[in-house]
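Example for reference:
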Amino acid sequence: MNSNLKKRISIFIIIISMIGVVIFVFAFSSVLFGDRINIPVSGMTIAVGGTSSYVIKPDGTLWAWGGNEFGQIGNGTYETQYSPIRVMRNIVAVTASNEKIMALRSDGSVWSWGMRGEQMNNASDISHLTPVRILDNVRHISTSNSHRVAIKTDGSLWTWGTPYGLTHDGYFVAHYSTPIHKMDDVVYASAGFDYTAAIKADGSLWTWGRGRIEPQQMMEDVKHVSVGHEYVLVIKNDGSLWGWGSNNFAQLSDEVSRYHSSPIKIMEDVSFVVAGDKNVMAIRTDGSLWGWGDNFFGQLGNGNFEPSLYPIKIMDDVVYVSLLRGRTSDIHVMAIKTDGSLWAWGCNRFGQLQGGFTPESYFIERYYAQGYPRHRAVNIPIKIMESVMMPVSRIINSDN
């Protein structure tokens, strides 16, 4: 046998061996590495709390600053933090309500801290000053003032706290200190004040709350939903934005009625929306950020404090925006631009705009009625951080 033939046979054997290794790894990947799925984590790399702010940096570390009266910063104290402090590592998503925080780690585990034990998946009524592990095998999280929602890696949706809200006579339907299984085949969910909305894999939108226990199908062909304080905003697959519910602060951009029981169209070419307490932030398909509704703290970012019935353009090149969805007395906004920089505006009473790094000339004093405390606010976007984690899909290992 000549040397060329021997060389060819050796190369052939090596190639066959490599193919065999690839087939073996693929076939037994769930055993070797766990079931790894490319799962969108909703882009939630920043989160706005009632008086605090949360940011995931590119290295996966979670940082927080602002008000800390219920331990919502997660650093073991009740002291207000006027500059960022590191809370956790290996974080891929974070969500916040007034004083209740949840974070999703890269291994699919959910951690929580802040006020009120019944939403912490335990029976305690005390605040947790540091993160507590509460759930595993999770790919999406959402929290509100009243309850919390988690979607597991198998598509099942779980909720706890007070997920059904108030009955017509003013009583809460039920409290759950541990997660209850609600529905399956869910790809996205949003928890509002006392209302929940979920999108199933077929694009159908289901809602429950306000005293109603069973999910009810509301729409089809839906790709995103955000539940605010007593109203809901939905983006359909064609990019059109729809809303229904309360319109007391022009959240639905309608000057005729203060309430809509069925969806009305608001605008076109929308890629992302977040429904706040009294105002809305929407990113259009060209990356421009638009806002409307209340503007007491300058949360519309247009240089004044006047409310707006109709959408007004705030800035360009935006990929993600965060606004507290629940009811709050302090309102601020954070947004990520295409270069990864973080921008913020609105109320800064507890340093939630990272006041230690912001020039004093930006702040304007705002007052409530007599007897209420004064608030410092910024009514234009200001850059507060050079680089944060961009909102992209991530790999979550369901084997814990």
Summary: The longest helix spans residues 3-27. Residues 20-41, 166-170, 368-373, 394-400 have pLDDT under 50 and may be disordered.
